[in-house]
Amino acid sequence: MATFLYRIGRWAFRRRRLVGGLWLGALVLALAAAAMAPSGEEEDLSMPGTESQKAFDLLDERFPESNSQGAEARLVFQAPDGQRVTARENKAAVQDTLGSLDGGDQVASTTDPFESGEVSEDGTIAYSTITYTEGAVDLTASTKSALEDAANKARDAGLTVEVGGSALDSEEEPGGTTELIGVAVAAVVLVLALGSLVAAGLSLLTALLGVAIAFGLVSALAVPLGLTSTVAILALMLGLAVGIDYALFITSRFRDECARGSEPEEAAGRAVGTAGSAVVFAGATVFIALVGLGVVGIPELTKMGMGGAGAVALAVLVALTLVPALFGLFGRRVLPRAVRKAAGAPRRGAGNFATSHDDPAGDRQSIAAQPAKGLGTRWARFVLRRPVAVLMVAGLGLGAVALPTLSLELGLPGDESKSVETTQRRAYDLLSEGFGPGFNGPLTVVVDASKSADTRAAANQVVKTVRGVDGVASVGDPVLSRTKDTAILTAVPKTAPNSGETKDLVHAIRGAVSGVEADTGAAILVTGTTAMNIDISEAMSDALIPYLTVVIGLAVLLLLVVFRSVLVPVKAALGFLLSVGAAFGVLVAVFQWGWAADLLGIEQTGPVMSLMPILIIGIVFGLAMDYEVFLLTRMREAHVHGASPDEAIVSGFRHSGRVVAAAAIIMISVFAGFVGMSSPTIQTMGVGLAAAVLFDAFVVRMAIVPAVLALLGHRAWWLPRILDRVLPNVDIEGEALTRRVPAAETVPDATVAPLPAGRHRG
Length: 762
Hints:
- It is found in: Cell membrane.
- Keywords: Cell membrane, Membrane, Transmembrane, Transmembrane helix.
- Pfam families: MMPL.
- The protein is built from 29 helices and eleven strands.
- Strands 6, 7, 8, 9 and 10 form a five-stranded antiparallel sheet that branches.
């Protein structure tokens, strides 16, 4: 692999204009396709095979007239203190408000709360449902403006009016202040890590180009593939984070090669052949983990995984081709000014990179003689002196942070999780106040009586049974389908949709109606948004351990091939578990317990979104392997050239410690930048991923890994002979380059002359 990528790096360096033109063309095409594509619609989560999904499918078949794709809005009216909404003046204001909407553009129907009984028992709150002919994303600005004007008209009459429903839903748009702050932090870290504005700008530019292409493709495919805004934002988040990191790793290696005397083209080839090999492996692990989300069986999760995987694949391709092409444009200007000035000074091994790598004794000598310069070297030597203490402190610390995970509760956010500053949240609160906390999450009971003798009798028996279940506030009269073989009825819980009591109620109803099924022969299914959320959350909980097992197994297998060691993969997998567990602990503490919630702008605590644990496991698995590969590659490189285990650890930190730390800070800042978005899904994802990267990079990889390697010594790199014979050699350290591709080798190219040191050709 190293030799193949080496040649790709040199080819891209020489053909820089062609490579740059191709990527620029891809960007233009992706953005043009996105601009011409229609907007996608936000879809409800579904879980094929669950009882609630089967019921939804049955309703689509038996009640096609109720399967409207149009958006809905709820205008919720509250009378002034001491008054009733049914008073003559207030009633007239409500009816005038609804009259201004009835018959309006894209309005299908409005309900009169005084005729349909949509008034609270105390008469202070009423609501009207407005149904539209189009989905939320297709509602025009004038239609939404008319809704807001109607609400303001009632407010002018003295009523409190809030608007709920899907009509005001909009796709979350990236590009806010917090995301820009994250990019700005990444830029500063790049400058500090690389010591060159050119190098920092190169890494940032290539990452942004890859992200722009990925975002354009997701937007263009939103309608045909049913991709939501969450898919696009995940692609943006992951593409930006890994894109910057991958460019940073290759640029850092290019800088090292140039500083050792290699010509820019040779340095580009070696950077792509060595660091690029690690990038390919790291990207492949993220890609596989994200694509593997499809096995869970939730279409939305599958789409999120595919979108993120596509963005990561693009980031890898950009890093392997566009980054070395830009090396060809900028040459040694990628290096810090001080290094460029010192380039002509004589030094050991200058101009012949292969010499030091072909001389294990010399390499051992250089490592042993290396002074304790740099924080990475000093930290590595500190860990080597106190490995047991470092391991105990780091392991117990992560274990303590992970303890809240034992209280993890899963759910799906609704309007109750939105900010109290939004009208949707205030409408939710008013409906809860007037009609009970369960009103916002009604349950739909579907009676399939196609094999029953009497549909009406079966439905009435279900009504009687459900009314007798403890926790049910009310049950509506059954409604029969046109074919008279199916009935539906609505049951309103006494408790809020995301409460544990409502979850127990769903199971209690399903258990209670089983006797009716035996008596009547009808099939009875409980569904509704609340029931669907409960079913999805339980499915996620059931799938968590199997998915984690698959991911851990994959990690061990891949690292076994890459590092040709048995204990290194096991250690990496256990460290991954620690970082993921600690990240889950942070999610529980913040989103369930409310710790630091005000600081992060989270106003409502509740269950952690049910998709998050599996999604975070998939993403963090790949990112954790990134740092493992980049850090241990240099350690193994030194070890195979004869360095002692301790010397190899110091060498790995000396070469990669600062770069890995910079990459982690960049990724944390990018993920944290999305915490400021209003979507609970994106907020949870941002906090979880930022915490996971923080723990994995700075505690697991920087502390636990060197401590364990120090304690294991030579045993860390032990591999049974039988495995040594059967495992493929992927050569991620680039050993083949020192044997097959001498430093002085040039690849003939009649169109490009060798670049003089310190100069570049644009």
